[in-house]
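Quarterly update, task 2.4: pyridoxal-5'-phosphate-bound model.
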Amino acid sequence: MSDGPSYGFDTLQIHAGARPDPATGARQTPIYQTTAYVFRDAEHAAALFNLQEVGYIYSRLTNPTVAVLQERIATLEGGVGAVCCSSGHAAQIMALFPLMQPGCNVVASTRLYGGTVTQFSQTIKRFGWSAKFVDFDDLDAVRDAIDDNTRAVFGESIANPGGYITDIRAIADIADAAGVPLIIDNTSATPYLCNPISLGATLVVHSTTKYLTGNGTVTGGCIVDSGQFDWSASDKFPSLSQPEPAYHGLKFHETFGPLAFTFHSIAIGLRDLGMTMNPQAAHYTLMGIETLSLRMERHVENAMTVATWLENDPRVDYVTYAGLDSSPYSARIPAVCPKGAGALFTFAVKGGYEACVKLVDSLEIFSHVANLGDTRSLIIHSASTTHRQLTPEQQEAAGAAPNVVRVSIGIENAEDLIADLDQALARATA
Ligand SMILES: *Cc1c(COP(=O)(O)O)cnc(C)c1O
């Protein structure tokens, strides 16, 4: 089918990017388990390497199964192109790579996935890049943090570990005025709940490991390009606007227009960094995406039911779920994520660190894992696991204080989840 804008989300999540296999007519997208592709002749090979013709050369760069997934995610996010890679963290590096040079910085929200805080505050320093963390609710602070060396602003739509919703439009306006792209990590919301591009984001990154795959089978990542940023408006992005020596002097923006970032990410990013998604992983994620809207609806419904029950339980101090009226961020739902605030949230257990550890050990349906966005309900005590490498101040800022556990509510029967929490809370606070 042609991916006309008239099709609804439920149709596109099944069909976008996919066509019956040209060789066999196979209806489901085949897993093209191949490393290389035979050139028709030497001229064809030369055209492919010159990026004059789009086609397949080698699976570090492109693969037909991965290409279907890329087109599907780009369509669901409303972007012009997408590049998949090996994990969500790979996607973050791949998103920054065309923009940054040594000495450049990214202005990032303090409310981020713990691994992202570590990647940005420590590891990217080895590339000569740095991050400035600011509270995205303080718009003046965001504006002030952007300096001449800033090349991107980075936040999460619904922020991990949950309960926070970024005012994407307000942040996008600030980034726009400063002439830098806004990158939104849309992992926790998915394109079903939130469309960052329609709110002004330039790039959207995903850990496809989570809801997009939805069943906890494979790691993957994706960068979606809105195609709306003018890379040539300043001299800040020479790798996109100037002759790129890593691709024999090609000017990506002049040559590919709105697809400049996407082509750069394949021709240089995947070619030289090699953080490639494999076709098996793309297959599992394609299977998952077919039911994304159905799962997200149930995730949101269950999260509301469980969060409401917890909020009314005397053994719980507070619940930070943006879907609850008590949340300071519930007012942002209609503009940012009108179909719901996701299924990730934290709650504080009376009894602090010890009670949290006991709770996690007493649950039967909830799995104690460092993951989220699975069909299964998951729980983690962030302060002793995912966020343990952060300072206490960073833990607080990220919503991962010692007395708090994070849940990722699955699509089981809500009454079973509540019964499980009830018995575990009884043991934890006995
Ligand atoms: C999991 C996650 C990541 C990292 O993704 P991986 O696939 O684990 O590398 C980044 N951001 C968010 C919001 C995540 O949930």
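Highlight for this quarter: The CA atoms of residues 37 and 64 lie 10 Å apart.
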